[in-house]
Amino acid sequence: MSTTLLPPLPRRVIPNETEMSKTKVLVVEDYRPLAETLEYQLQRAGYDVSRAADGREALKAAKLQLPDVIFLDVDLPILSGVEVCKQLRADATTKDTLILMLSALGEESDQVVGFAVGADDYVVKPVESYKVLLQRLKALLRRREPAFEDSDQVEHHGVRVDRRRFVASLGDEVLKLTKSEFQLLETLIRQPGRAFGRTELVDAALGEDTMVLERTIDVHVRALRKKMGDAADLIETVRGIGYRFRE
To answer: Do domains 17-148 and 152-245 have the same CATH topology?
Structure first.
């Protein structure tokens, strides 16, 4: 099977296996200074961090990126954090995602509501100690470790993706993929049958801040299909929309 690689896109770096094993955290916070501080502290601690600034954007990012943990502000524009939490828990793809709520509302009744809709932890703002916050995050992750081990690997139609080891395989053969190809395949295979738009796949495979044309994703899909050989038709083209992994 051919493993010829396309020329690398500008500003993209292929990470090593350790970098790919980072826990994915989505920070949902509309107050930018706090969002930036959380992002900095989490990245400094070794987490892979993305951000959303309102409830609707949070739902879209959560279902696309499938983060391990969501830091969720309660007082959000468009959709409140409580409503976002309800919808995440009602969706099969995000129902087990760890959710740590952040709120300026510290009354017992407010916290009861947060836990009632499915939050795993509740932190009152302002955050007094980021060291303590990170320890609470680690405690949540330890509590959920068995579930993470199950969700790290996904297999469908003989194609297996292992997020922690950064390994994709077809039967007994390991596919030699770039970071972008790996993330593209992982995004598609974790929700088989779902049609992803090109913009969604650019965000998932290349990063939300990457300035590229939507058609760039077609180049990555062609390269991925070539490496998948006889299984290439598992990645189906959805005319006028984008791509999906065969259900």
So the answer is: no
CATH architecture of the domain with range 17-148: 3-Layer(aba) Sandwich (3.40)
By the 8 A CB rule, do 29 and 53 touch? yes
Q: Is the pTM of this model over 0.90?
A: no
Is residue 208 within 8 Å of residue 198, measured between CB atoms?
no
Cβ burial of 60 (10 Å; 0-12, 13-18, 19+) is middle
- Locate 62 and state its tokens: 């959560």
How many Cβ atoms from other residues are within 10 Å of residue 80's Cβ? 15
Structure tokens at 61: 């990012």
Give me the residue label for tokens 């077809």.
170
* Residues 55 and 84: beta-carbon distance below 8 Å: yes
The CATH code of the domain at 152-245 is 1.10.10.10
Strand bridging mode 121-124 / 98-103: parallel
- Widest CA span of the chain, in angstroms? 61
Mean pLDDT of successive 10-residue stretches along the chain, which has 247 residues = 38 37 87 93 92 94 91 93 93 89 83 87 87 88 60 86 87 87 90 87 65 72 91 92 91
Taking Cα atoms as reference points, which of 12, 1, 10, 11 lies closest to residue 181? Answer: 12
